[in-house]
Amino acid sequence: MVADLPPSAEASPAIDIEYRTGDPDLHARSSRLRAKRHEPERDAADVASHTRELAEQLSGRLPVSDTAILLSVTKGRVTPLKAHHSRAPRRALAELEPASDQ
C-alpha cells in the first residue's frame, strides 16, 4: 500500500483515527485537543497565502525594504513571495489605502 503513494504523501499523511476509550469525557477532550493541534497548520497556510498576495500587490508600489517591513519578513523573502503568488483576488491592498473623504 505505501509503495502506491507518491513520495510527498509520506511527509505528512492525513490519518484520522477514531479511538474509543470508553470514557465519553476523555474522548471529547482528546478530540478537541487533536483538532486544536491542527489549527496552527491551517493558520500558517492562511498567513502565507495572504502574505504572498499582499507582496504581489505591493510590488512596484513600494521599495523592497518597505514591503519587507510591512509584511514582517526579510528583504530576501519579498522576491520569492512575489514569484510564488497565487491567482487570488486582489483585495488586501484596499485595506491599506486610506478611505477618501469624498
Task: Briefly summarize what is shown.
By secondary structure, the chain is mainly α. It has helices spanning 24-58, 64-71, 75-83, 92-96.
Question: What does this protein structure show overall?
Answer:
- By secondary structure, the chain is an all-alpha fold.
- It has a domain at 43-87.
- 56% of the residues lie in helices and 0% in strands.
- α1 packs across α3 (75-83) and α2 crosses α3 (75-83).
- The radius of gyration is 21 Å and the shape is elongated.
- Residues 86-90 and 98-102 have low confidence and may be disordered.
Largest sheet: none
Find the structural class using helix and strand composition.
Answer: mainly alpha
The radius of gyration is 21 Å
Number of strands: 0
Mean of all residue-level pLDDT scores: 76
Low-confidence stretches: 86-90, 98-102
Q: Count helical runs.
A: 4
Helical coverage, percent range = 55-70%
Shape: elongated
End-to-end Cα distance: 64 Å
Order of helices and strands: HHHH
Percentage of β-strand residues: under 5%
List the helices and strands and how they pair.
Layout: H1 24-58, H2 64-71, H3 75-83, H4 92-96
